Amino acid sequence: METQGVAADVATVKLLIDGAFVASRSTQWREVVDPATQQVLARVPFATADEVGAAVAAAQRAFAGWRRTPIGTRARIFLKYQQLIRDHMDELAALLSAEQGKTLPDAEGDVFRGLEVVEHAAAIGNLQLGELANNVANGVDTYTLLQPLGVCAGITPFNFPAMIPLWMFPMAIATGNTFVLKPSEQDPMVTMRLAELALEAGVPPGVLNVVHGGEEVVNALCDHPDIKAISFVGSTRVGTHVHHRATLAGKRVQCMMGAKNHAVVLPDACKAPTLDALVGAAFGAAGQRCMAASTLVLVGGARAWIPDLVTRARALKVGAGRVAGTDVGPLISRDARLRVEGLIAAGVAQGATLELDGRNPRVEGFEAGNFVGPTIFSGVRPGMRIYDEEIFGPVLVILEADTLDEAIALVNANPNGNGTAVFTQNGAAARRFQEEIDVGQVGINLPIPVPVPLFSFTGSRASKLGDLGPYGKQVVLFYTQTKTVTARWFDDDDAGHGVNTTISLK
Predict the structure, then answer these.
(1) Full strand arrangement of the beta sheet holding 353-356
(2) How confident is the model over 306-353, as pLDDT tens digits?
(3) Which residues in 155-181 are b (16+ Cβ under 10 Å) and which e?
(4) If 0-12 CB within 10 Å is exposed, 13-18 middle and 19+ buried, where does residue 264 land?
(5) Within its chain, how far is the Cα of 348 from the centroid?
(6) Residue 145 forms beta bridges with which residues?
(7) Catalytic: 290?
(8) Which of 47, 62, 262, 482 keeps 20 to 30 A from 505, CA to CA?
């Protein structure tokens, strides 16, 4: 919901420009709404063109000094930052749950997975290392330097308002860049609290800046000539736009986008832990995860497990995220709820079997919330909307296959490649799956295979644009440019070897 003014009794979200939290002069605002109650928590401005320009200018000024800051100094800032996040974990989780709707344990997990990247950034001294080859020719050494790019920008989604910003700016800043962050306008408050803690940890003025807004601000970041790289996580539609526009403007771009993650279950899988894992991965965070196991492929005898799956899903408690015992919180907005309900209706209309209908759950005390309960379809086939589209809600669709080969072919025929999983006790089958599946991240008896920051997020195909993923080893390369130096030093009494007009380094 956008408004032209702002009420005096509702908090306003600030911009962060050059180390100061400043009130926007915008006339365009959006309400930050508690998805469980529709209570307006705050109003967030859509930054003006001048404000975006000021944020980039501050980052550009700060870069000159920050790039020369010793790597140990940068690392110590992130050592302090990770401790501040730990000290404020309960506060951050509560704020995230209020504006995004997640359960408190899931909100804490959101913060913690971002914290892991901050801890990794604190080890930047071991990550940003070049290479050296000594005496590649007579008295000649060659070595590489990993140098920062300059001003970088990040555009983050609503579903992980702590984790994904923490994927981006800590690694960008630790490698010597400065940063302009645009968080989701739907739930920016926990992101702003993390920005406050970053300043408290010692991030200098201008090194981290935050602006808010919609399409106009996104386009401004894509177009600005002083921004050298953009990292994006969000929908395929917006990510494709960002990649094309920013690439045309000469920037490095990485875009993590939509998904349709398949979990393949073989009949020899351990039944109870597999069913528990699938239900948690499908319905946790109300299905609002790009890595949700939203699509199940039951192979052979595993098709008989559907009733047990339904029983477990039906037992999940739907409610406000802040209420103890809640398993499935609300969707982010009324529009999101209506879209998910529309896709459920389309599944019925197209002939899928509705095993469990989560529409219109009764949540006492939160009747105005954006709730959809766990929903399960069987008899799903490619070509149905509930299979072809990312639902981004608590809806699990089930397909069937006679063999592992058929299941692999089904997964590989889907254009998306964020994540997949196989459940089996057969090591040979698991190895065959991991080798033949054309998906960037594979879980074996684990439904959400998001790697720890020692590695990198490696979604593939239509789920990703750009060669390098966020965090981990790959993002160090994304946020730096490699400079190769070939050097020879002469002694004062070196008589030389005569003129050489060839390309040789002899």
Answers:
(1) 353-356, 375-378, 395-401, 295-299, 262-265, 420-423, 442-444
(2) 999 999 999 999 999 999 999 999 999 999 999 999 999 999 999 999
(3) bbbbbbbbbbbbbbbbbbbbbbbbbbb
(4) buried
(5) 32
(6) 483
(7) yes
(8) 482
Question: How many other CB atoms sit within 10 Å of the CB of residue 388?
Answer: 11
Total count of residues recorded for the chain:
506
Residue range 200-223: mean pLDDT, rounded: 98
Q: Which one of 152, 222, 255, 290 is the catalytic residue?
A: 290
- Count other Cβ atoms within 10 Å, centred on residue 410: 18
CB 483 within 8 A of CB 147: yes
Query: Among candidates 286, 278, 274, 284, which has minimal Cα distance to 262?
Result: 278
- What three-state secondary structure class fits 253? strand
Return the structure tokens found at 205. 């003025």
Banded model confidence at residue 6, pLDDT cuts 50, 70, 90: very low
CB 178 within 8 A of CB 59: yes
Q: Ramachandran region of residue 148, left (φ > 0), alpha (ψ -120 to 50) or beta?
A: beta
User: Is the pLDDT score of 4 beyond 60?
Assistant: no
Close Cβ partners of 25 (under 8 Å, ≥ 6 residues apart): 48, 50, 51
Contact 153, 220 (CB under 8 A): no
Measured distance CA(268)–CA(293) in Å, rounded: 20
Q: How far, in Å, CA of 346 to CA of 339, rounded?
A: 10
Tens of pLDDT, residues 406-447: 999 999 999 999 999 999 999 999 999 999 999 999 999 999
Q: Classify the phi-psi angles of 441: left when phi > 0, otherwise alpha if psi is within -120 to 50, otherwise beta.
A: beta
Could you give the 3-state DSSP secondary structure of residue 234?
coil
Contact 222, 251 (CB under 8 A): yes
What's the CA gap between 458 and 154, in Å, rounded?
18
| Residue-level pLDDT at 458 | 95
Separation of alpha carbons 162 and 195, rounded Å = 10
| Six token digits for residue 249 | 């403007």
Average pLDDT value over all residues in the chain: 96
What is the 8-class DSSP label of residue 285? Answer: G
